Amino acid sequence: MFEFAIPCVCFLLFIGLAVAVVIYGNYVSEKRRKALAEAAQLMGFDWLDKTLGTLSSLFRHFTLFNRGSGADAYNAMRGRIGSQELYVMDCKYTTGSGKNRSTHYQTVVLLPEAATHLPVFEMEPENFLHQVFQVFGYQDIDFEEHPEFSRKYLLRGPNAEQIREAFTPEALDYFGSQPGWFVESKNGSLLVYRHGVVVTPEKLPEFVAEAARIAAFFQGGSGPSGKPQAIQEEF
């Protein structure tokens, strides 16, 4: 009887622990959602939350949302900094399976009209594997006059000449001194983020302003002026 009770107790403990983990996870998610909604209000942004499905056509084509399975975006808000319309959202996707299954979370800024004049490109921090792949012809667009940018970033796209024209000296100098950014330009939209970074509500205004500044570099400027503003049109 005693020998039978031990597995039962272990099983119940396991179930109880699993339930506790789920409850705590839901608590943390709800706490973040409320804090982000408050941050959106303070920034003058529109909190979208449940209407996010309408946005899927804006971001599904980006490489970030095709890296694994179950890609999803949530906790979305919409606003404007200067002339830049933008969306801010959390996203997640899953890679691997079984014991190697991992879910990745992060915060992104989507600027749906910031790349209408830009070529398709992807920019990300360069790593050792990229350097190895380049030996076998893996594309990396470098700028001899900006060695810091070329050393820190991998830049790829189907039209190298147009991409070179899009990256202004101001943009190259900025990225050369600010490592860690990911920027994708596709279908006239710009996606800006730091891989694996989930931005806290307190840091969100700074993060959004920096993403808008990056977008402004591709407009030929040094960055937007003015405070975040809500977009008043009906969503």
Structural descriptors:
disordered C terminus, 9 strands, alpha+beta, 235 residues, single chain, 7 helices, nine-stranded antiparallel β-sheet, 25% strand
Commentary on this structure:
This protein is α+β, with helices and mostly antiparallel strands and 235 residues long. It has a domain at 3-118 and 188-229. 38% of the residues lie in helices and 25% in strands. The protein contains 7 helices and 9 strands. Strands 1, 2, 3, 4, 5, 6, 7, 8 and 9 form a 9-stranded antiparallel sheet that branches. The longest helix is centred in the first third of the chain and has 42 residues, at 2-43. It is globular.
Task: Offer a concise description of the structure.
It is built from 7 helices and 9 strands; from the N terminus they run αβαββββααβααββαβ.
